[in-house]
Design goal:
The chain has about 120 residues and is mainly α. The protein is globular and about 50 Å long. Strands 1-2 form a two-stranded parallel sheet. The longest helix has 15 residues.
């Protein structure tokens, strides 16, 4: 019976840097892109963004490297996960963070046109 290799990447906000660093080490140990080593790649929240990044064709027709994803979080994390003094109270009524910075970062990174936020062009 053939085995199915699944990569599941947990969420965790800015801590998404940790699985991206680990995936970078895995990438350095194999000659092919990470997506070729797995039959299914999935994630939750930040893990889903990483899964999309390593399986997309948005970077010059190929996937982003884990180090590209680390760079994305390092450069954009402070804006994406920006807290204000009312964050604890606001998260009772809605999301913990404003989606604006995340949406803008993902639109740039994955080349999503502002006129059509649900369709990927890559």
């Amino acid at each position: 019976m053939k085995s199915i290799k699944v990569l599941a990447i947990d969420g965790g906000g800015i801590r998404g840097i940790i699985p991206a660093v680990i995936l970078g080490e895995l990438q350095s140990r194999q000659a092919a892109p990470l997506y070729t080593a797995f039959d299914l790649i999935a994630g939750t929240s930040t893990g889903g963004i990483i899964a999309l990044g390593i399986g997309t064709r948005c970077k010059d027709g190929g996937p982003y490297s884990p180090s590209d994803l680390v760079d994305m979080y390092v450069e954009n994390g402070p804006a994406i996960f920006k807290k204000n003094p009312l964050t604890p109270e606001l998260q009772v009524l809605g999301p913990k963070y404003s989606p604006d910075a995340l949406e803008a970062t993902l639109a740039r990174f994955f080349r999503i046109p502002s006129s059509s936020p649900l369709s990927l062009l890559c």
